[in-house]
Amino acid sequence: MPRSSSEETLDENRQQNQQSNQNNHNDRTDDGETGEKSNKQDGGSVGFWNSELKSLFLSQKLMYLFTALILSTFVLGILSLYWAALFRVEQNLGALVVYVVDFDGMVAPYTDVTPVVGPQIVSAAEALVAPSGSLGWVSLPASDFNYDPIAVRQAIYDQKAWAAVIINPNATALLQNAVQNGNTSYDPMGAAQIVYVQARDETTHANYVTPQLTMFEMEISSMFGKMWAGQVLTMAASSTTIMSNIEAAPQAVNPAIAFSTYNLRPFYPPVATPAITIGLIYLIIISFFSFSFYLPTHMKFIMSPGHRPLHFWQLIIWRWCATVLAYFFLSVFYSLISVAFQIPFSSPPASETMVANPATAYHYGSFLVYWMVNWVGMIALGLACENVAMVIGQPWTAFWLIFWVITNVSTSFYSITLAPHFYYWGYAWPLHNIVEASRTILFDIHSRIGLNFGVLFAWVAVNTVLFPLCCWFMRWKTMREKKKEAQSKEQ
Question: For this UniProt entry, which segments traverse the membrane (predicted)?
Fold first, then answer.
């Protein structure tokens, strides 16, 4: 029976719907090939395991491993400098020299007294010379100081030694007089004195010098007390007055002798710690980041539309002057932080052989000198960062910053005296001289500020000479990169 035209039309529609459903099913069940082709045509993204990324994965694996190798080598090499600064401390403690000077019975009017106290203390100090991990005990004759105990204090202030044990000229005479005559005013602490300057390096004193001095004092008091008590009892057996004298002045037997402590320049106030330690790290960081902050401003003179570029040599002069001027203002605000937290800047200087707290080196001019140290130090630190940043570029400048911080910190916040001799280059590093100059200003310790400024100005001079060369190198590198980009676009 022949089919009508309407039935043929329905069959055709049914076939088209089936074909459409089949296509949709294929799209849904396809593994991504059709979708990938569509995405490729539409410029969309691809899957993580797409074959197009195979070659890229290979190259990036190598780059990833190479970067990890560089970072690991850098961590092992540069960070080791920080750890190694304290690696030989116990072996180098002998470099912390402590003078032991015996004046007992050597200065008139006590020259006719047979000394007892002095020889005991000296022999005890000499017994400490051999052991490893001990301070550098050195026994010196009184004649080296012209028989003047104040001259020993001057030597400690002048940083010829880290501390001194001084046996006073009348140590034995006063002790014997107290026993023989019952001197009730006898003070055992008049027998000897310990002298040091804490503000020279409060960390070294607290960790190594002071503990051993305290231990030495206790050992001497105990040893001498036993010996002296035996002698006094022997005298008392043959003289009844000795026993009554001991009852009147028992301190002449126990403890018999003690040590007066003279910290010529205490580390005070505690808030001064950031000004000579951690706070100076931020001085490095601020000087480093000023390059990236000010570079866009400098580039406006040669890249902005609407005007011809500035002469290159004039740009160099502008950049140097603008950088130094920026450090001028940054350093004053950095210095004002110390003033805001009431670090003394107006205390007068004091006698070098007397205890003074607080004391500053330049009285009312101390803040101005402190500011100048920070300014010149910032130029020394910052120009080096500018030069290196222009030469090595990103991302290597991050390595430079870490290197610059670690090498400066490890030779400034820790005593180079206790470090291996390898670290002696630290005496020429900028931050070491900033720290030393700041201590001189804030605590009135022995001054080498002329040397400190000289080292800083040497850094400024060398980096100023290198500055034009580094600017030229950065321009050459930038022009070469632009040329390569233009060539790649043409191809």
Answer: 62-85, 271-295, 316-341, 361-384, 396-416, 449-474
β-pairing verdict for 192-196 and 163-167: antiparallel
Which amino acid would we find at residue 334? Y
Domain residue ranges in the chain: 92-263, 270-478
Q: What is the DSSP string of 285-351?
A: HHHHHHHHHHHHHHHHHHH-TTSPPPPHHHHHHHHHHHHHHHHHHHHHHHHHHHHHTT----PPP--
Which helix (H) or strand (E) covers residue 165, if one does? strand 163-167
pLDDT at 39 over 50: no
Residue 253, both tokens: 């037997």
SS3 (DSSP) at 166 = strand
Greatest mean pLDDT range, 105-119, 154-168, 214-228: 154-168
CA distances in angstroms from 35 to 27, 30, 105, 276, listed in the order given: 8, 8, 104, 65
Q: Which residues pair with 193 in a beta bridge?
A: 166, 260
pLDDT of 38 reads 43
| Contact call for residues 292 and 395 (beta carbons, < 8 A) | no
Residues 6+ apart with CB under 8 A from 490: none
pLDDT, tens digit (0-9, with 9 covering 90-100), for 242-281: 888 888 999 999 899 999 999 999 999 999 999 999 999 9
DSSP structure string for 86-153? TTTHHHHGGGSEEEEEE-TT-STTSTTS--SHHHHHHHHHHTTSSSTT--EEEEE-GGGGTT-HHHHH
What size, in residues, is the chain?
A: 491
Tens-digit pLDDT profile for residues 103-129: 999 999 999 999 999 999 999 888 887
Structural element, H or E, at residue 187: none
pLDDT value for 11: 52
Give pLDDT, residue 135. Answer: 93
Residue labelled with tokens 């607080």:
358
Q: Is the pLDDT of residue 29 over 50?
A: no
Cβ 163 vs Cβ 156: under 8 Å: yes
